[in-house]
Amino acid sequence: MELNLKGKIVIISGAAGLKGSIGETILMNLASEGAIPALIDRNDRGSDYIEALKSKGIDGLFLKTDVTQPDEIEAAVKAVINKYQRVDVVINNVGVNDGVGLDGTYEQFMDSLKLNMVSYFLVVKHALPMLIKSRGTILNIGSKVALTGQGGTSAYAASKGGVLALTREWSVDLIRHGIRVNAIIIAESWTPAYKHWIGTLDNGEEKLKSIVQKIPLEKRMTTPQEIADLCLFTISERSSHTTGQFIFVDGGYVHLDRALLSSD
């Protein structure tokens, strides 16, 4: 299916994770479809990724940015606009489950909100004039924690709950401009960060097996590629009448009857 993303200017935040992370996978799939990614991230890996694309003749831009700093986000988005004179898509992909719970400090709680939610607001705010001109698309990457809770992570849960609220609010607010706004909700995905977390547990393999057994469809985790595929479809014109939606790519983890998980 032709997604017609060639030449689209796509601002994507948080896509300089390790190879195989959700952000990096989305980034590379954007490039393979002919889109022009403008990567906003604080990690220098982003420069390596964009340089690797350029070596293959694929255009792209890396803006080293601490997304907890409003001035840096504004400068990054302005740099994209100055270079390309256009923004077609914003993908907000920042997400760090930092474990700031009720025992955390006020400062830790607020820092988590700045990273995991406020950055979404600021990227969209500064890109909005260009999105209005292009009748563009906004995609927010969310988490099942916003809906299910997890325990011990109040700040992240609040942030991702806010991201879902912003998705609905923006879809209403911007519908007069023809701008579509959706959220992809992820549950359990096998990423480098997830692998690292499992490795920190004394009973890591046992914990992993327990989690996987709770995923109804095929009792396996969602792959970053499956997430990227859904993201690209959702931002493309093939999804032209979809807005204000929370789209789950989770193997049925959040919604399906737990009776499915009984042993045969």
The CATH class designation of the largest domain is Alpha Beta
Mean pLDDT: 95
From the spread of the alpha carbons, the general shape counts as globular
Assign the CATH superfamily of the largest domain.
NAD(P)-binding Rossmann-like Domain
Give the CATH topology of the largest domain: Rossmann fold
- What structural category characterises the helix and strand content? alpha/beta
Question: How would you sum up the major sheet?
Answer: 7 strands, parallel
State the order of secondary-structure elements, H for helix, E for strand: EHEHEHEHEHHEHHHE
Notes on the structure:
There is one protein chain. By secondary structure, this protein is an alpha/beta fold. It has 9 helices and 7 strands, in the order E-H-E-H-E-H-E-H-E-H-H-E-H-H-H-E. It has helices spanning 22-32, 45-54, 70-84, 106-134, 145-148, 154-173, 192-200, 204-212, 224-235, and strands spanning 9-13, 36-41, 61-64, 89-92, 137-143, 180-186, 246-249. It has a 7-stranded parallel sheet with strand order 3-2-1-4-5-6-7, with helices on both faces. The longest helix is centred in the middle third of the chain and has 29 residues, at 106-134. The termini are far apart. The model has no long low-confidence stretch (mean pLDDT 95).
Compose a concise summary of this entry.
The chain has 264 residues and is an alpha/beta fold. It has 9 helices and 7 strands.
